[in-house]
Queue: 4 jobs
Job 1
Amino acid sequence: MGSAKRTVNDRIEELRRQIREHEHRYYVLGQPVISDYEFDQLMRELQRLEQENPELITPDSPSQRVGGEPAKEFPTHPFSRPMLSLENAYSEEELKDWARRVVQLARAEEVDYVAELKIDGLSVALIYENGLLSKGVTRGDGRTGEVVTGNVRTIRSIPLRLHEDVSVEIRGEIFLGLKAFRQLNDEREQAGEPRFANPRNAAAGSLRQLDPAIAARRPLDFYGYAIFPTLPLQSENLKRITKLGLKVNPHRKLCRSVEEILDFYHHWEEQRDGLDYEIDGVVVKVNSIQIQEKLGSTSKSPRWAIAVKFRPRQATTKLLNIRIQVGRTGALTPVAVLEPVQLGGTTIRNATLHNEDEIERLGLQINDRVLLERGGDVIPKIVSVVEQAPDRRPFQMPSRCPVCGGEVYRPEGEAVRRCLSQTCPAKLKEALLHWASRKAMKIDGLGERLVDQLVEKHLVRDVSGLYRLSQEQLEDLERVGPKSAENLLREIDASRSLEFWRLLFGLGIRHVGERTAQILAKHFGSIERLQNASQEELEQVHEIGPKLAESIYRFLKQPENRELIKRLEASGLPMKSDDVQPDRETKVFEGKTFVLTGTLQGLSREEATKLIEQRGGRVTSSVSKKTNFVLAGSDPGSKLDKARKLGVQILDEQQFRAML
Ligand SMILES: [Zn+2]
């Protein structure tokens, strides 16, 4: 290795060491000492150095968490020690019986126990060889599990390298926190995908994704509870797992009697809502591993441990009515109105029903008696119909929005009906924020607090209302001085001279993102032509599928939306593209692959990439036989040599520009 290489290698090692330490502080200890920004800077530097020196990449590098290719199926792994499930106790009596048996079989005077929280997740085994994570395996049937290493590697609280170079197997629970769970479900609902029933299902679905890139977007977490080879005590094992760099749940207790176990149990049954993850009981284990071995296991479960389940938080009550809530995105959500009932210490009057399919699935009708359950969502849900009422009546989803009277529509394959009117008061706040966003009309001064006031004081009834606001009206609002009112008006005014596609994006047509808006603006050139386009014409546009075409078509046919567009036109907003060009002619790089290397004089890499992509080409990071062009600037790297070797055409900046 040359000395320059050695310096690079040292820097890479140093970066990895720092990143590992910060990941441990952030994800395991929850005590970060640098900002997210500073962390990103370290990671970027590492990624850049590794990209330039691919031969120095190692599998345990923190940059390699999401590296794996999507799998076709999961290989299996036979456990050397079976991963048994635990016996359950549903009452104090059952716990006491178990403890009596333990003392008897152990032939001991006294037995110590470790009580831990029973997290509602998925058990996995992490196999480390010489300190490196080599396998992550699901419990499977307890004898043979599925190898899901690629997905396990994406979990940031699981280190790819332990603090010591030891070979161990660490078992624990993978779970999804409640905050992350709710966010994931909201995103799925937005995207028209079905919601996960509970965090456990969401975690299971994520862990069994064949594509690790999907698992990487779900913020899964991990708590360890067992390690092999074992130390003499379970309490020591837990400390050992922490010392190796993994998380162990901090809520645990060394108990000397059943009474102490019960204290712990009752405490957490009361306090479980204060945690950001779901627990469904307490796990009690004999602390001494020697006694554990003496007690042994049945074919199903160990005799030295038991799961004491919490009482289910269920109740029955009568469904009085179903009313419709219109959300910020215009989604119509049915909500159950219930006869008030006590559940887990609070009075419950409402339960969510998610969507009309859920009502049908439950076979629910008004006046029925229903079984309620409180789980991961703060709002309880209806589990089943307990008794059909003689005077029951079916519920019908409305075909008009209960807030604005606008038409509602349920696209094929989606579970949710939405109000289509972009002037609906229920959607107004969201519509204004979207309109003002950076990718749309760039009205930076219009934040959430201001939008709330504008809507609540009825100063604005749709986005066109922004263009009629006066300095006096703005100054009357809370926390708006003359200066900021002036700035805001200037920004609003400036949005009149932005590109036409921004208006199309800003309108908030469902499924129309920035890129689609640009395609539409280019293809149709004006709002008039777009409004007159049939659904078939829309579908014929490159990159516009049937679902998108229908969404655009329906939106533009809505009388409320047409009126809104007229008002926007009257307010002086752009309704035409200046550069009307047919889509096809400019795709000079259609199907061509580029690799960039070195520094270009007049262009940044991002700009060059954009120019290529706009013309239908693709930019990849490494040179292969499939590469069509290498665009080389000054100080090109090894990519240029490789391109020469493979006979790939090399362009300098001037030649590249000539092709545009
Ligand atoms: Zn509406």
Job 2
Amino acid sequence: MSDLPARDLQPLWDELAAQAAHDARTNIAFPGATDITFSQLSHLMTQVLFNNIGSPYDHGHGRNHTKTVEQQVVNIVGDLFRAPASRWGYVTSGSTEGTEHALLDARKRFPAAVIYTSAAAHYKIVELADKLMMPLVVLNTDAGGAMDVADLLGELAQRRDRPAVIVATAGTTMTEAVDDVPAIAAACEKLAITRRRIHVDGALSGLPLVLEPIAGVPRIDFTVHGVTSIVVSGHKFLSTQTPCGVLVYRDPPHAATVAPVSYTGTASVTILGSRSGHTPLLLYAALAGLGIEAHRKRVRACRAMAAYAASQLRGVGVDAMRHPHAFTVYFPPLPPTMAAEWVQPTDDQHGHLICMPQVTTTQIDAFAAAAATAITSCPHAAPLPARRRQDKATVAT
Ligand SMILES: Cc1ncc(COP(=O)(O)O)c(C=O)c1O
């Protein structure tokens, strides 16, 4: 393009806003909360440059950052997960970056480490293992999607001489299953695997689970001996409206020991170079602005809505299932006609909907009615094209 004349973009912004509002009605399948909004931050978000480059714990040469707020965010999330005073963390671009940081840390400490995660873990973990050139063992799950710890024990036993990094999931992408983190730690203990890291990917369910624990759901926080790091997404439960995450370590990672870079005056301890100084503001506004009691209430409301959704779907003949803590209701993939109107992610076993705080009974009722029509109008239709979960496999050990 040789020339780019200025033009009035307002019609485009209006169209995008109208489209987003229209699509929100039938998008109840991805776990982004949108109920908390941040108009009080509009000046800071749109008219001030903030760049939290480098370590959140040293200010560096730059002054236009929000690292003090970032530290508060890490501390609030650290407190929720019962992190000890030695905690260390930062605001990431999302859970994926946090998991990458934890895997890289494991590799630096233990170059021969093998990653173990379940077939229901997020697809990015397979890619990260590939990118970091770390061997990966993908484990079986139970019917509800939680890691099969007996399978883990068997796989660990075959490599007792190798350091292990286990990525446990607290809220798997499709069924919101929670891996039994205490049992994972016990499996390592049993085999005397002391060179180990346990990272909890709590992208969606980490915060809801520590805000409102449920009897029978295993603990996923730092009180579980052996948990070394936890990550949560900000744009999922905390409604930050733009992707971000919070990574917390029990103790400072290997990266925290590096010297400051002379150009920035701050240690390069993060995956990215320049980092958003705005997302810590959104996270702080969501966490401290609303307060913990409001978030507990949000969790209870989401669970109640999910229970309602499961019952409405069962009422129209959909074999809907739900873990007791979950916002997610999952079911065998619905006929393809459903996807014309409703956003329908699937894997080889399930479709789902997720009751984030903004989801209403009106939406659930409309979804159930559409599912009923889809099932009766094409009872023998092939389900939506399935996306495979990662195979149980061992990659280049
Ligand atoms: C279990 C799990 N982990 C990680 C992610 C990726 O998180 P992010 O988008 O914050 O990188 C997701 C996203 O859906 C997820 O479900």
Job 3
Amino acid sequence: MPQQDSRARTALVVVAHHRADSLTAHTARRAAARLEAAGYRIDLLDLRAEGFDPRMTVADQPDWGDRDKRYSDEVHAHMRRVLDADVVVAVFPVYWQSVPALLKGWIDRVWNYGFAYGRSKPRLAGKRILWLGLAGATADDLVTEGMRKILETNLSEGIAYYCGFAHSAVGLLTDAEERPQRVDAEGNLRIGDAVAGAEREAQYAAFDQLALEYVEKFLAEESVPA
Ligand SMILES: Cc1cc2nc3c(=O)[nH]c(=O)nc-3n(C[C@H](O)[C@H](O)[C@H](O)COP(=O)(O)O)c2cc1C
């Protein structure tokens, strides 16, 4: 077990997937292990396992006339976990070039008015976030570069920097499917054959390695002023 002390910084690792045996959950566990090895205390938030309901409620809807609104106890408990974290690492499958509803709803309900935004001094100021998105598209798919840009604009600019984060990085993990997916010149989604044996092992090893590189880069950027 890595050494932990009261001064250890906390990493909130948010997993947004409906299956515990998914590649997403596997990637989140590996990212958490790497962060723990770097000295972080890990708070693992598996949104589905914890029963988080992503649907907005009246209790958690912002009141634009009251930035000190008391939201639901559930949301306040999540806000506490975000506040206690020095870094947030969100791991999710890319759905429609965005985050899945589970993660989107967590942001909608928890990163709320008066807490995450709407104050001259944002409460999340100075925190750092890594978004690790798993995508079915292959690295050489024509849609991939556009998807990367959309995710960066949406997640880093639209959400993290808007909420005062000091640093936000998007790690796009393509080739997350066993069977390669590419959109051809006519716009048809071509699903290739699954690879097997050593080739498949190599594919997963390359995938794990890329995920690790994103985490390493994020950790290395820590010492660089924003
Ligand atoms: C509703 C839905 C939307 C998806 N949209 C995209 C997409 O926009 N781009 C992409 O590359 N893959 C997309 N995919 C593929 C997923 O990203 C891929 O299945 C997932 O990352 C695999 O990881 P998992 O095994 O952990 O679910 C989509 C899958 C689903 C089910």
Job 4
Amino acid sequence: MKVSAVVLVLVAFQAAAAAAVVQATAPGTPTVGYYNDKCNGSVEGIVRDTVKAALDADITKGAALVRLSFHDCFVRGCDGSVLLDPTCANPYPEKTSGANIGLRGFDVIDAIKANLESACPSTVSCADTLAFAARDASRYLSKGGIDYAVPAGRLDGVVSSAADAESNLPGSTFDVATLISNFAAKGFTPEELVILSGAHSIGRAHCSSFRDRLSAPSGKINPYFRDNVLAKDCGAGPADPTVENNIRDQNATALGNLTSYVVPASGGASLDNSYYINNLNNLVLFHSD
Ligand code: HEM
């Protein structure tokens, strides 16, 4: 998969999802450079610098931001509603949904928003903040290979429901037909589904998200990977540890002969096309992969 293809689809991802939310919440259409004439043109730079500082301190936060944006955009469009905390009036917002297991990176969004508020109060929506942050994390993790202009000017959503998240987000046990129809409902082609799934070259997952794979037949998953890597990492008890999504990032000692399949990060960029190579070798975590 060429990086340029990934870029195009990420742009489409945000544009399609942004269009959905704008129809629901605002008359305007998001535009590239929306904040250029606000806050001395410093908005996107503040986001970029804060994301860079956060990833310099903990690079795993990059994957968190990419997934956060996906999970925001797939539920009522890119309206920031995934960021809302439970309240007495709304005890079950999106982030409490089981489909949002492991969602993290909220602290990075809070840090960006604090910096934005200090430089230009009440100017930048949380929805735009998250969309910019995911782009900047993608650029950081791909060493500049993935970069795209983000249309902005979104309003923040005020509705956030766990039930909406459950019914819109894809599940890790979905088969290909269900995934295709889930993505088609958001305007994506099967090819775009495949391209976007390449994001699983980064990040991590809870064992509960792929426990079904520990008993999957050998034709569906490399049996050494299943029995000697994943099963050992996950254990049989009630604990639900996390495992790296990409075999490249897993403990090399445990991999045994599988190290011959490991695709080194290209030029240090972890957001690359290794997911597809892993996939062809039955070395990915989820049934949906
Ligand atoms: C095709 C359907 C998809 C399914 C079923 C799916 C499912 C999952 C699951 C179950 C996890 C692990 C959650 C956990 O156990 O903590 C995960 C992680 C992740 N997903 Fe997906 N995903 C899909 C598509 C995508 C897309 C389109 C993106 C972004 C463009 C994405 C980005 C990520 C990232 C970056 C992580 C790691 C997050 C972290 O490290 O915190 N996924 N995904």
